Amino acid sequence: MRAQGLVLTVFLFSLSLFSVAQSTTTAQTAPPAKPAQSQQSAPTPGRIQTRTRLVAIFSGLENRLFQAVQKKDQAALTPLLDDEFEIWIPNETGDPVPMDDWLAQVTGAYTLKSFHIRQMSARDFGSVVVVKFVYGQQAESKGKDDSGEFFVVDVWEKQGDSWKLSDRYISRFSALQPVHPMRPTGRQ
Amino acid sequence: MKLPVGKLKVLLVFLFVILAVNFLAAQRVRDDAPGQRDAMPTGKGTGDSQHVLPEAKAAHAKTTSNGIFYHGGPVLRSAVVPIYIIWYGNWSNGPMASDSQTTVSLIDSLLGATGGIGGSPYELINSTYTDTTGAVTGGLALQTQVFDSYSQGATLSDATLQTVVASHLAGLGTDPNGVYLVLTSSDVNESSGFCTQYCGFHTHATLNGADIKYAFIGNVDRCPSGCEIQTTSPNGDSGADGMANVIGHETEEAISDPDLNAWFDRRGEENADKCNFKFGPTQTTSSGAKFNQTFGTHHWMIQMNWENASGGGCAQVLGGAFFTQ
After folding, report:
1. Nearest residue of B to residue A62, measured between CA atoms
2. For residue A24, which residues of chain B lie inside 8 Å, CB to CB?
3. CA-CA distance, B88 to A10, in Å (whole number)?
4. A30 touches chain B (CB under 8 A)
5. Sign of CA dihedral B96, B97, B98, B104
6. Least CB–CB distance from B44: residue in A49, A70, A182
7. CA angle B234-B237-B240, nearest 5°?
8. Please, how many CA atoms are within 13 Å of residue B26, restricted to the half-sphere of its CB?
9. Residue A31 contacts by C-beta under 8 Å, 6 or more apart in sequence?
10. What is the Cα gyration radius of chain B?
11. Taking chain B (325 residues) in consecutive chunks of 10 residues, what is each chunk's mean pLDDT?
């Protein structure tokens, strides 16, 4: 009798799990359910912003810059940099990294597998715009994992008709792997 | 009846295998389900981006579409979507010329029941967005408006902005099928990033027992370089003309994605986000201002909207040509 009971219990448990799994699957693949206002009583937190024109402009420039790093494309990278570009990043000496050293680093034993930019703001000071954002990357440097998330402050200077990056300040705030928003979460 | 121990073991193994296969199958279907990889548009998404080296990308099934996807939520389908305005701050004689009744009159004209943006060939682009029961009509009009003289101070947070909306529902009416706009004078800041991150935003919340859709739109004269496309504007009021552009953007999104769960793309961008600061071909007034729309007697410079048809693209009018800039 104990054996029969065990079999029956396992069978029923399996059936229930099977049922749950099927209903979950259906919910993910079925056409959208008929929306009802009454079901929206617990609204998803969040808001949709209209980004400023400057954020649009510098989002494009920052993406071009990181894409050039990703492709190790120095010819695409250097036109975006001021001749006296420096990057300030926590290191052993505390010294800023000059442009040539940085270019050698990112076009050398460094692989930027993926990156994302979020929460960008841009403040206009005439011919200078200060751009701040959160930057996440999955990367390797000299064979070691260099993934994480960083606060970045960039100083862009208008030179003629183009913008040049003159200074970059980076501070790592998370060593965690960047989490890519792959499905609705209610808030980014 | 007694089962032999051997048969019992076989039966248990069989049940376990069924269970395991079932779970694995369920997980696979989840991964492949359409829309499940889309970023949620929650406000910080429009300036966000993500890039992955080709070799690092996961394989995804390609689907043909109009570049924007439905996620199951409702759209606003009223024949004429009611618009409610809360003029916040000083709209009589504020610190800038545009903090004035002239701006109030121009925006009222833009949202007027006749000769306004509602029902125009431009607004009809929004009629390409549907939910499971019908489509957006393209109609919208100002229902009523109130003035609020700094009830929450000269700096609003997201929380006090919501308080402003909630406090005026009694006067304006609690309407879950309308859109409430909070328009602030140039001396009012929204501390979550107005002018540096955004020119406006829309959201929703349960207020007075109803799902209320509302938007913040500040006087863009506060930050011309960030939120205005030109200093000489078609109606001679750079604040009103700049705000008109943001109002067009926010109302289109609040109608096609009122609960942030209807229409957006894989980057989390809603229809108007995909055409932000893209205006298409323009004409020039005698004063030198550019414009691309005419509603009634007024010219306007208003960004294009993403048409959810013919492969998708930024258009100035429903069924018109698509433009990239």
Report:
1. B49
2. 26, 30
3. 64
4. no
5. positive
6. A49
7. 95
8. 17
9. B132
10. 24
11. 59 55 39 44 50 50 76 98 98 97 98 97 98 97 98 98 98 98 98 96 97 98 95 96 98 97 94 97 97 97 98 98 97
* Separation CA B76–CA B258 (nearest Å): 7
The whole-angstrom distance between A57's CA and the closest CA on chain B is 10
Burial of B136 (0-12, 13-18, 19+ CB in 10 A): buried
User: DSSP character for B127?
Assistant: G
**Chain A: residue nearest B177 by CA?**
A37
Tokens 């570009």 sit on residue: A85
Q: At what angle do helices B238-256 and B101-110 cross, to 10 degrees?
A: 40
ipTM of the complex: 0.75
Q: Which residues make Cβ contacts (< 8 Å) with residue B206, sequence separation at least 6?
A: A41, A42, A43, B212
Test mutation, A26, A38, A47, chain B, max B CBs within 10 A? A47
- Asked if A51 lies within 8 A of B39 by C-beta distance, the reply is no
**Residues in B touching A181 (Cβ below 8 Å):** 39-40, 45, 268
Residue of B82, B100, B81, B102 whose CA lies nearest to B91: B100
B153 φ/ψ angles, rounded to the nearest 5 degrees: 90, -175
Residues near B291 by beta carbon (within 8 Å), at least 6 away in sequence: B234, B282, B283, B284, B285, B299, B300, B301
pLDDT digits (tens, 9 = 90+) for A100-145: 999 999 999 999 999 999 999 999 999 999 999 999 999 999 999 9
Tokens of residue A104, six digits = 């050698």
> Tokens 């929306």 appear where?
A35
Largest CA distance in chain A: 89
Residue B98, phi then psi, degrees to nearest 5: -80, -10
Q: Report the DSSP beta bridge partners of residue B194.
A: B198
Residue of A nearest to B176 (CA): A37
**Length of chain B as a residue count:** 325
Interface A-B, measured as beta-carbon pairs within 8 A, has a size of: 244
Identify whether the C-beta of residue A138 lies closer than 8 Å to the C-beta of residue A113: yes
The residues in A 97-156 lying below 8 A from B, measured between CB atoms, are: 112-124, 133, 138
A14 contacts B19? CB cut-off 8 A: yes
Q: What is the pTM (predicted TM-score) of this model?
A: 0.77
